[in-house]
Amino acid sequence: MELVGRFIAFEGGEGAGKSTQARLLAEALEARGTSCVLTREPGGTPGAEAIRALLLHPPLDKMGSEGWGAEAEALLFAAARADHVAKLIRPALADGKWVICDRFLDSSRAYQGAAGALGDGEVRALHAIGSGGLLPDLTIAIAASPNQISARLAARDRGRADAIGGRGADYHARVAEAFRGFAAAEPDRFALVDGEGSVADVHARILAAVAGL
Description:
Layout: E1 7-11, H1 18-31, E2 36-40, H2 46-56, H3 70-94, E3 98-102, H4 105-115, H5 120-131, E4 138-143, H6 146-157, H7 169-185, E5 190-194, H8 199-210
Parallel strand pairs: 1-3, 1-4, 2-3, 4-5
Helix pairs in contact: 1-8, 2-3, 3-4, 3-5, 4-5, 4-7
């Protein structure tokens, strides 16, 4: 019998619990005999990890400021994703493996397209060129209250955030709103999961969301 690979992406704002839940899902699937590849964006391949370092810790300019403009940032994300898709995601799917990815295209749509005001069409066009328009079979968007997210970020970052995570509250509010909008607009591709409660509570909701696959 031919193995069928599946592609599941985890999305959400900073502190939503994506990385933890992606790891737990991969472990649960492996325990059931499903071969999984756990990966992340930006990253997942040597080239994409190198671009990740540029994005999260950008060089200083002559004025001592760091950071990329919205256009440059979107291009870097698209380049990292193109390498990731070509060298890891598509080969794993072709081998019948399940790919569990911490962030994918919809993060670029939310962060650069919506919150960064670049535009959704522009981000999707870059994805079409660089990654052939590949979309996950299921995108799990985790939503949690601001209070819970603040507590998680405090425990995770301990006062130190990267160039994107350290942006203002208004920016991150636009990101969260964008994910909710994506889930409402594409209910067949998205599962909006309540991120409140314990890690085990959220994990149980995610297992229920992927049961159809």
